[in-house]
Amino acid sequence: MGQQKTAPENGTRESERRRTILRAAIDVFARKGYHGCRIADVAKEAGVAYGLVYHYFKNKDELLETVFETGWSGFIARARAVAESEGPLVEKVRRIADVAFDAYRVDPRAVKVLILEIARSPAGARINRQTAFVDVIRLSAQMFTRAKESGELRPDVDPLLASALLFGSIEMGLTAFVVGLADARDTAMLERAKAQIADSFLHGVLLSSASSKSEPAKHELPRGEEPQDAAPPKREKAAPKSRTPKRG
């Protein structure tokens, strides 16, 4: 009986230690980069013995691989839920952008590692980013194919290329924050970036009837412009001409 109770407790404690070490690795990779990161740094960040890190991970390459697999699988699951849901394409594209930017807002260091450090590290060669990106592109390509069949997508738009362009735009938008071109602490800026990426993409691929649903309201016109149906200004009546008295 005692052993039956102890086994699950040990398993829970092992899982917690592993998650603590993995979280510490994300923070160190984000702060120091792959080449500047040492196992000793991860152990110190996690508050565990140096040798305990090696109990769960062979080296820092395996740590980085696990960071990628964990973070990417979570994003794929959320993106899949959006792509396979009911609703118009406009809504789905905005929600996919929400998923990506919300991930950055919640855990910017993890997203920084996924975007920058995976590609820079020798471990990146063993991490099959190509397969990972192919999976997500094919996933959303099916979403664009259904939108094309329903008449939302322009007939000349290729669903596979549209999918690649969408995720390429999202990745580069996030990169602007990751490398410091945009202030990650500015939540309003994050919201604007997310909306601008979705709007710019949608205006390029949707039929005019579908894209009109994402147009700004008429009251959001730029300064200095008037709506086309505005009433013309009234003309002022000309003053009557004064008559010159006839000379007698």
Which key terms come to mind for this protein?
single chain; 0% strand
Task: Provide a descriptive summary of the structure in words.
The protein is an all-alpha fold. The protein is 68% helix and 0% strand. It has ten helices and no strands. It is elongated, with a radius of gyration of 28 Å. Residues 215-234 have low confidence and may be disordered.
Describe the structure concisely.
This protein has helices at residues 2-36, 39-46, 50-56, 60-83, 89-106, 108-120, 129-149, 159-178, 187-205, 208-211. The chain is mostly helical.
Would you spell out the secondary-structure blueprint of this structure?
Elements: H1 2-36, H2 39-46, H3 50-56, H4 60-83, H5 89-106, H6 108-120, H7 129-149, H8 159-178, H9 187-205, H10 208-211
Rounded mean pLDDT is: 81
Low-confidence runs: 215-234
Radius of gyration over C-alpha positions, nearest whole angstrom: 28 Å
Structural class: mainly alpha
Q: Which H/E pattern describes the elements?
A: HHHHHHHHHH
Helix content: 55-70%
First-last Cα distance: 135 Å
Q: What percentage of the residues does DSSP assign to strands (E)?
A: under 5%
